[in-house]
Amino acid sequence: MREFSQNHMILILQGLGWTMALTLAAMIFGGILGLLVAVLRSSPNRWVSLPSAVLIRLFQGIPLVVVIFMIYFGIARTGYNVSPFVACAVGLSLFAAAFLGEIWRGALLAIPRAQWESADSLGMTSFQMLRIAILPQALRLSAPATVGFLVQLVKATSVCSMVGFVELMRAGQMVNGTTFDSFRVFGIVAALYLLINLPMSFAAKRLEKLKL
Fold it and tell me: Does 183 map to a domain?
């Protein structure tokens, strides 16, 4: 057993950095895919909306850790090795796309039909209507729920420790394995999660009170 030291704290902070990197990657790629899912899911054409509906149901219904295991170990069985970071980033991105797609779809459906008709009367194409008139309003409406989901996404990165990726949770486990100072180690880990998530939680509540 070793005393908790500066090196242990550095390892935990490095884990925090990887947690932030995973969250950022999932938010960027999951956001892009989620926006596409939201638009397709809102289509009145069943054959256009069906694939996105299947993706949402699939990745909302399967635990995230199972998705990451399928990507990490499943691809390895084909003879290709995938790094834990890539497997986790892909799994988290799909997870984010499913939930953000549903959040943003709800916001799109909340836009009054008159807004669509007004944009159409100006001679806009479907893409122009979405880009100029509809999406900016929908994104403002969905801002509180989006920020709230980001809090969940940060916490969801902890499952990446299951495939050996050294993010914040895994770093805490490694330090605890050498110091056996569980209360201090996981107290620091919990404090760092709070440091990230509390400002976002307060921002989500504030956005809910704003008249967007």
Answer: yes
Q: Tens digit of pLDDT for each residue in 17-32?
A: 999 999 999 999 999 9
Provide the CATH number for the domain around residue 118.
1.10.3720.10
Contact 37, 52 (CB under 8 A): yes
Structural domains counted in the chain: 1
Q: How far is CA 99 from CA 37, 38, 39, 80, in A?
A: 10, 10, 14, 29
Closest CA to 204 of 150, 138, 128: 150
Amino acid at 49: S
The residues, any chain, with a CB within 8 Å of residue 41's CB and separated by 6 or more, are: 49, 52, 53, 56, 101, 102, 105
Determine the average pLDDT of the residues in 129-135. Answer: 74
Separation CA 38–CA 30 (nearest Å): 12
pLDDT (tens digit, 9 = 90+) per residue, 55-104?
Answer: 888 888 999 999 999 999 988 788 788 899 999 999 999 999 999 999 98
Q: Give me the domain span that covers residue 60.
A: 6-209
